[in-house]
Each structure stands twice: as structure tokens, then as C-alpha cells.
Amino acid sequence: MDRHILAFLAVLVSGASVLASAGYFSSPEDRRFYSSWTAVFLLTVLGCLFSASWLGYLVFLELSTAALFFLTARKEPRTAFRYLTAQLAGAALLLGGIAGAGGGLAFGPVEGDVRLLFILGLGVKTALPGLHFWLPETHGRAPAPVSALLSGVAVKTGAFGILTALGGVPSPGLVAAGAVMALWGVIQALPQHDAKRLLAYHTVSQLGYVMASAGAGGAAGAVYHSLAHGLFKGCLFLCAGSLEKSFGTRDLGLLEGRGRELRWTRWLFWLSAAAIMGLPGTVGYGSKIFVKEPLGSWPLAGIALAVANGGTVMSFCKMGYYAFGPGKRSAGGRSVSESGWMVLGMVLLSVPVVVLGLFPGVLGRLLGGGEQELFSAGKLAESLGVFCAGAALFFLFRKRLGTLGELPDADRLTDRLPAFFARAVLPFRRLQGGYLREYLLAAVSAALLLAVLLF
Amino acid sequence: MITMSFVTAALLFALGLFTVLTRRNAFKTVIGLTLMESAVLLLLISWAYVPDGWAPILPLKGPGADPLPHALTLTAIVIGACDIALAFAFIMKLNRFEKTVDVDRFRRLRG
User: Within this chain, do residues A346 and A423 fall inside the same structural domain, yes or no?
Assistant: First the structure.
């Protein structure tokens, strides 16, 4: 059932992304390009989810990476190349794992030492701590409909792979990694000014929930939260795209609350923000309960996730306040319009957010997560309490938050790698004189040397 | 007698190498490469020499010559002709875009 639910998510997010790209891109060539490559992406993701062997999974996963590479490379070639390099490195690890396990491994639980290679390789896809260096830049810089695909679907296929490789066996390391991701993502997201980079760090944070649940043996919670996160984060990225399209910037400091003029975008943003905060009535409420359920024997991880949830509330209060809150109107009373296609895409994702939020038990039963009282007083109080604490903290430290500097992250380190490699190969580049006669001399002497050595 | 053949091959190869290393004209470079190629083919054929050998056709009238190096050389001659045609085509392209056939002035491979 897991793979059917993720396939449903992939179809929905791809559909919304195609709709939104009709509004996001102005030229017809761009629209055609993005919708056709999104279809290719959807096809490969479905192949990945329904593959029978690990090798088939890997092939389809890399094909989906290639589709995303082309989708990103049209506007952001440098970012796309970095994304591709990071993903191929992960794929190499995974391929090593598959080869170590004997090649034709059925898509299912992996035993023994090669499991570490599987987790590391897929960890690049799912942004485990330290391996997440590519994520903020890629998700932040790609065009908004592509970011929705990246954040809504692409990382979920990797998470599904980790879930399958574990096969329900608890893994304390993964729980710890998930808790660290959840906290680190929020800590990094709080000082961000770029709306999409902020959302990208929240992807790291929310993937932490998925990983913690998967590590604790709760496959139901992991898949539930994957679906929930795909829906509301896809919608949030489209909101950021709508802001960018209408005002030409996604810097929260420059928006100054002008987003209020985009009526639909504003309401759909607050709906998705409520979902990511885990408020009752949205899909995030039920999914966070199912994530926390298997974490009973890991109280520290549970506390870390609760703190991360408070930080998420703060961060989205900040984004909503600066993008849609009180501020100046645009000059001359000229009203800014929003694109109908983008609104349609956001609505397509918001409907399941509300429907699944009102009936959270349905999906829980489908996933075999067990019966439990979802709207009990204690759980409602916890959700609302975390929300109130986060919102109060935001309004208390609003001024401080605006001036907070960004902490150095892993991508600072990886940004230096190309320059380092360029220096390392410089002596070899010097060998290239460009004189044809030198090359011929080198070739002939090599051949003569070989002849002398052989006889 | 066969020693003369080996010496000729060595001289031919040295001549080709000298041409390639000292001439800057791309046409002359190709001529040098052709000379070196001929030297190698001559070497191959000389090695295959069987004293008092007969054509290896049944029934044999004496010691048979090895047909393999001959077939190989024949093939190499054909491939060499194609190589030269390709090289001349490249030189024509080079002349069209760079307005020169001087190989020292065409240094885009420089690191």
C-alpha cells in the first residue's frame, strides 16, 4: 500500500506542477519543455516506486534525477550540474551496495554490511546530516514548479528506498540522524531571507521526521508524513513561485507584506503553513501523530521533534508576516494580479490537505498504522500548545530574528571542492602545450618504448 | 637480402618522424605520418619473410609463407588510405575556419 500512496502523491504533485508551470513561465516554449519533462519525471518515479529489484529501482531513480537535471538546467545550469554530481555520487554508493549484495537483489529488506552503503547512497537523496549539502541550493534556485517536484516527490523516492532497505527493523542511528536533521533544518531556516531557501531547509527538517519514524520502525508514520509533506510543501513552493512571479523577488525583506494583494496565494499559503505546523484540520496533524507514535521508546528524539515543530511554527510565522503581513502597499494603487494557473495548481494540492486533515484515520488504516483516537484532548492540546509557544516566541523575538546571521552549513565546504580539484589537476593541464608536434612525438616515443619493453 | 628490407623500414620511419617533427605545414605532417605508416607495413612484411617459401595454396610445393601478415598489411593499407582522406578533410576544415594550415598556430588544445 505504501507505494500506491506515494504514487498518488507523485501524480498529484506532478499535475499541480504542470498546471503551475503554465502560469509561472511566460514563453510557450518553456511551458512545453517543462510539461513534457515533468511527464518524463512522473513516468520514471512510478517505475522507481513499482520496481521489483534494487537494480531497477536504481536505474529509474537515476532517470528521474536526469529528468530533474534537465528541468533545472534550462534556467540554472550551474545548480543543475552540482545537483547531478551529488546525486551521481549517491548512486555510485548505492550501486556499490547492490554489487556487494550480489547484483540481482529483490527490492526488499537488505541484510548485512552492505546495508550501510544502501543507507549512505540513499542518504544523499534524502539529505541525511552532512549529505544534505546539495539540497538548499538546488531546491532554492530551481524554478518554483521544479522545486515542488524536487521537494514533494524526488526526496520521497529516496526515503521510500531507505524504508524498504530497513524492512521495519529499528535503527537507532537513523532515529538520531532524523532528530538532528529536524533540528538543524529549523535552525538553518530561521535566519533565511530567501523564501525558497527557507522552504528548502524546512524540507531537510521535515525529512528528519520521516527518517526518525522510519528508524524507529514505524513505516506507517514515515509514509504518512512523506505524503503530507509532499502535499503541503509542493503548495508552499508554488506560493513562493507565485510571489516571485508577481513581485519579481522572493526576498522576504523586500516583499514587506505586499503579498496580501495576492488573495488566493495568501489564503493557500496560510493553509499549507498550518499543515506544516501540524494544526488540527490539516494533513500535518495526523501525520505528526503517526510519526511520534513509534518514538515512544526514544524520548529524546520525541523532544527534539517537538522543539523542531516549535521552530517550524516560528519560521512560518516569520515568512507569513514578512510576505503577507502588515506593511506597505505597492505605489500608485496599482493592483498586482496572480496567475490563475498557479492558483489552480495550489488548489489541487490544498484539497487533499484539508480532506485528509478532516479524516486523518482513513489513511492511517490504509497504511496499517493501527487504530487510535486522533482528536483526543491531549493531542489537540499538544498541537495547539506548540503552535502558541512558537507564535509567541516569534512575536517576542521578531526584531532579533530579522538581523540574525546565517550559520555556516555543509555547502560552504562543498563549494570549495571545485576550486581545490582545479588546483590539484593544474600540473596536468600544464602538460597540454597545444603543439601537434609535441603530441606526435609523445605518441611515437610511447609506442617505441612499448616495443622495446615487449621485446 | 632481408636485412636491407629492415634497414629500409628503419630509414623510412626515421624520415617520416623527422618530417613530422620539423615541418609546420599540416599537409607535410600528413605526408610524414604516411611515410611512418609505410615503414611499419614494410617491417611487418619483412618479418613474415620465409626463405624459399611458396604461396600457401594446397597442395604445398615447399615451405608455405604465412598468409596472416599479408592479409593484415593489405587491410592496413586500405585503412591508411582512409586515414589520409580523413586527415585531408580535417585540414580543409581547419583552413576554412582558421585561415591557416600551420599546426603551430592552431593551439586550442593548450591547457
Answer: no
- Cβ-Cβ pairs closer than 8 A, A with B, add up to 38
Among A349, A352, A72, which residue's Cα sits nearest to residue A233?
Answer: A349
Whether B21 and A429 lie within 8 Å, measured CB to CB: no
The yes/no answer to whether this complex scores an ipTM above 0.85 is no
Stated pTM of the model: 0.80
Residue A278 CA to residue A285 CA, distance in Å, equals: 4
Predicted confidence (pLDDT) per residue in A396-408, tens digit: 888 777 777 777 7
**Which residues of chain A register pLDDT less than 50?**
none
Instruction: Give the Cβ contact number of residue A43 at 10 Å.
Output: 16
Tell me: cis bond preceding B59? Omega within 30 of 0 counts. yes
**CATH number of the domain bearing residue B35:** 1.10.287.3510
Is there a contact between A434 and B103 if contact means CB atoms under 8 Å apart?
no
B56, part of any domain: no
Tell me the per-residue pLDDT of B32-63, one tens digit each, with 9 for 90 and over.
999 999 999 999 999 999 888 888 888 888 88
Q: How far away is chain A from the Cα of B55, in angstroms, using its nearest Cα?
A: 29
| B18 in a structural domain | yes
Please, which residues bridge with residue A284 across strands? none
B106 contacts on A by Cβ (under 8 Å): 436
Phi-psi region of A256 (alpha: psi -120 to 50; beta: other; left: phi over 0): left
* Domain of residue B37, residue span: 2-51+64-105
How many domains, in total, are found in chain A?
Answer: 2
Query: How high is the pLDDT of residue B15?
Result: 95
A329 shares a domain with A274: yes
Residues 391-430 (A) with a CB less than 8 A from some CB of B:
428-430
Set of chain B residues whose Cβ sits within 8 Å of the Cβ of A431: 111
Which residue range(s) make up the domain with A442? 414-454
